[in-house]
Every structure is written in structure tokens, then in C-alpha cells.
Design goal:
The protein is mostly helical. It is 56% helix and 7% strand. A hairpin with a 2-residue loop joins strand 2 (138-139) and strand 3 (142-143).
């Protein structure tokens, strides 16, 4: 079990420069899950950097598209892989005309944006060769031996089949360690709340966003004519969208104090854009009026209590300021 102990030691002690090393570790662990021994005599398994890049691009796609999480401590110089993924995301959105977050396996990026995807994979492989492949093995200036064999600039690494089997057998423990370390890093780089949930959700098949229909009666109390909060015009001939003023990708939560009616088109085009100060002031005014109406109507429940708490603690302004950091 020395290999597993060393693997976890690397994960728990890798540097905080960026999240490349935990992404690398996760991709190799995922490769272990996919591994099926062709014969019992196989001693060494080859893993291509292209196959690792194909996994890494998915991790960053989902963390960036859904939650816009910063992956390093320098906001003026994001990691190359993050920039590559953002370019691919922009190409995908331009081609599909949709700005709604979508899981990687559902998006079909490889086919819809084949040229851009192939280019992105090549650039990520280049970054992995330069910044991760051999550096991953060094902790506090010392190389941990017996993990895998890699020659600098090579297209593949080689790992003992027995070690890969250990990773496969203990993958749950390893993924927990990776997610915990990734969360620690992101908490250093982001002010966003609920980061541990956001990291864990990437491993699930679907990012489950709960239906917002339970908020309709509350929103109707203050906005019975269904005016769009974003553009100010009446919503006619369509079902109003319920919009998160401070992006859901930041809060990862559905709260009455952050929900408003909007045109479907206004809601889609707004995407994850941080609202203006004027919009925040209007939301604060709306919340005060909404709370007064609900309390006057004698409604006393969880959502009304949370609305009152948000006003009392100035949540709107605090979260708006924090999400810009």
C-alpha cells in the first residue's frame, strides 16, 4: 500500500500555485477506474497525456461554466488551461446561441466544435507537459519515487498495473482527498460560498437546480403585473422566468431575496453577468417592499424569515461585493 500512501501524500501536500496538480491526479485516478486488465501478465500501463487532457478539460469546463471559479491566486494571469477552456466555451456558446450552463457530457462539444476542441486538447497537453507531468512528483523539493515513469516532453506516462489497481480499489478515498484539497485551494482563490458543494457536484451526472415554482406566490405579492426586473417592460405572452439577480453560479442557492421575474430572453442573455450597483439598489428596495407586503398579509414561514434576515444582515450588498472578488 506504499503507492497509495504516497499518492495521497502528494495530493494532500501539493503546492497552492494553481489547481493543475489536483486535476492531474483526478484524471489519472479516473483512468484507473476505466482500466481493464487485458492479461494478468501486464506489468505496466501506458496513459496518454491526450486522454488526461480530455478529462481535465471537462473538470475546468464545468467549474468555469457553472460556477466561474478562479483556479489560481493571480486574477490578472489565469492558468493557461483555464483560458483555453474559456475560449472553447465562447466558441460553443457562439455556435449554439445558448448561454445556459450545460454539463460536458450533454454539451457534445467534441462534435459541435470539433476544430476548436481538437485545438484546445493540444494546448492543454502542452500545458500539462510543461507545468504538471514531472512537477506533480515533487513535494517540498523532493521527488516521490515509484508513482509513475515520465520522460519530459513525452506524450505518455507509464504506471505499474498493480498501482493502477490500487487506485481503482480505493478510488472513493482518493476522490475525497482530491476534492478536499481542490476545495482548500479554491477557498484561497475565491470568495464564493459553498465551494465544497460546487466541487462535489462536478462528479455527479447532473447539476440539479431545483424548480423555482414555489416562489411564484411570493413574487406575485409584490409584482402581480409581471414586470421584467431586468428591462422594466411588462412580460406579455410568455411565462415569466424567475431570475437570480446575483448569479446562481456564485451563490449556488435559491433565495427569495435574490429572485425576480424577467423575460425569458432577458434571463438568458444576462447569463452569469454580475449585476450593476443600480440593480442591486433596486433589489434591496424590492426586498423591503416585498417583506412589508408579506408581513402585512400575515405570512410567516421560512422564506419570509430568510427574507427578513437577508435585509437585516445586508446580504444583497455583501454578496454582490464578494462575488466581484
Amino acid at each position: 500500500m506504499k503507492f497509495l500512501s504516497n499518492w495521497l501524500h502528494i495530493i494532500r501536500n501539493c503546492s497552492f500555485d494553481n489547481t493543475y496538480k489536483v486535476a492531474w491526479a483526478k484524471a489519472i485516478t479516473e483512468s484507473a477506474l476505466e482500466y481493464v486488465s487485458e492479461n494478468e501478465r501486464q506489468v505496466v500501463v501506458e496513459i496518454s497525456l491526450t486522454s488526461i487532457a480530455q478529462k481535465v478539460i471537462r473538470y475546468y469546463w464545468e467549474q468555469t461554466l457553472f460556477f466561474d471559479l478562479k483556479q489560481s491566486g493571480n486574477p490578472n494571469k489565469p492558468p493557461v488551461i483555464v483560458s483555453v477552456v474559456k475560449e472553447l466555451t465562447a466558441s460553443y456558446q457562439a455556435k449554439t446561441g445558448s448561454f445556459k450552463p450545460i454539463k460536458w457530457f450533454t454539451a457534445n462539444v467534441e462534435n459541435l466544435c470539433k476544430h476548436e476542441y481538437d485545438k484546445a486538447i493540444k494546448e492543454i497537453v502542452k500545458a500539462l507537459k510543461a507545468d504538471v507531468s514531472y512537477r506533480f512528483l515533487r513535494i517540498e523539493g523532493k521527488e516521490i519515487v515509484g508513482i509513475y515513469e515520465y520522460q519530459q516532453k513525452a506524450d505518455c506516462l507509464y504506471i505499474a498495473a498493480d498501482n493502477l489497481k490500487q487506485l481503482k480499489e480505493h478510488s472513493l478515498i482518493v476522490f475525497d482527498a482530491i476534492n478536499y484539497r481542490w476545495t482548500q485551494m479554491l477557498e484561497n482563490f475565491n470568495h464564493s460560498p459553498r465551494i465544497s458543494k460546487k466541487i462535489k457536484i462536478i462528479d455527479e451526472d447532473n447539476v440539479r437546480r431545483k424548480p423555482l415554482s414555489k416562489f411564484i406566490s411570493y413574487l406575485n405579492a409584490e409584482n402581480p403585473t409581471h414586470s421584467c426586473f431586468l428591462c422594466g417592460y411588462s412580460i406579455v405572452g410568455e411565462t415569466p422566468a424567475i431570475d437570480h439577480v446575483i448569479p446562481w453560479s456564485y451563490l449556488y442557492s435559491d433565495d427569495l431575496w435574490n429572485l425576480v421575474y424577467a423575460h425569458q430572453s432577458c434571463n438568458s442573455s444576462k447569463s452569469n453577468v454580475i449585476p450593476s450597483e443600480d440593480m442591486i439598489k433596486r433589489l434591496e428596495d424590492r426586498n423591503s417592499e416585498l417583506l412589508n407586503l408579506l408581513q402585512t398579509s400575515g405570512i410567516k414561514d421560512k422564506h419570509v424569515s430568510e427574507l427578513a434576515m437577508a435585509i437585516e444582515n445586508n446580504y444583497v450588498k455583501k454578496f454582490w461585493i464578494a462575488c466581484q472578488g
